[in-house]
Amino acid sequence: MLVTTTSIPSIQIIEPKVFGDNRGFFMESWNSNDFSQVASDITFVQDNHSRSKKGVVRGLHFQLPPHAQAKLVRCIYGRIFDVAVDIRKSSPTFGKWVGVELSAENKRQLWIPEGFAHGFVALSDFAEVFYKTNEYWHKECEGSIRWDDPTIAITWPLDETPCLSEKDNLAPYLQQATLFE
């Protein structure tokens, strides 16, 4: 696998080796030995799968300690613009974001460690996103930030007003959210 560090060093793009021929392709989407070069001592406990229509924005979501989540995200159908935002107040990259196009075609994955908010927008008619987490979901630890917070200033590739859940539409701005210290 090829690992590329982004402008926020702890956020990494992972490109698995893909073996293709006239039958289709084969790849290992996750391998414990290979992944140890990205993050050691990670135990994934939950897989999540979502389907979104074009223009749906999901996020920006996170979980606080003691149930903070790290995520390994990939798009298995269609295309998404995937975003991670540093929400660690003591970090030199606090409030900065990284955005990467993930698609069924490019097979890239985004590694998002604990301390980051995550969100994406579906770019294709439909997109299916599959991600692994190292911690179970706990309602009492969940948090969110507005997708369009001007202090973060994510450049979303949107042609229209996004479709949002009620929860995401009511999310607080970065300055009002409870975050990592």
TrEMBL record:
PANTHER family found in the cross-reference section: DTDP-6-DEOXY-D-GLUCOSE-3,5 EPIMERASE (PTHR21047), THYMIDINE DIPHOSPHO-4-KETO-RHAMNOSE 3,5-EPIMERASE (PTHR21047:SF2)
Family membership: Belongs to the dTDP-4-dehydrorhamnose 3,5-epimerase family.
Subunit structure, as described in the record: Homodimer.
Role description: Catalyzes the epimerization of the C3' and C5'positions of dTDP-6-deoxy-D-xylo-4-hexulose, forming dTDP-6-deoxy-L-lyxo-4-hexulose.
Any one GO MF annotation of this record: dTDP-4-dehydrorhamnose 3,5-epimerase activity
Gene3D superfamilies: Jelly Rolls
Annotated protein name in UniProt: dTDP-4-dehydrorhamnose 3,5-epimerase
Entry keyword set: Isomerase
Catalytic activity entry: dTDP-4-dehydro-6-deoxy-alpha-D-glucose = dTDP-4-dehydro-beta-L-rhamnose
Enzyme Commission (EC) number: 5.1.3.13
InterPro entries: RmlC-like (IPR000888), RmlC-like_jellyroll (IPR014710), RmlC_Cupin_sf (IPR011051)
Alphabetized CDD domains for the sequence: cupin_RmlC
EC top class named in words: isomerase
Pathway named in the protein's UniProt entry: Carbohydrate biosynthesis; dTDP-L-rhamnose biosynthesis
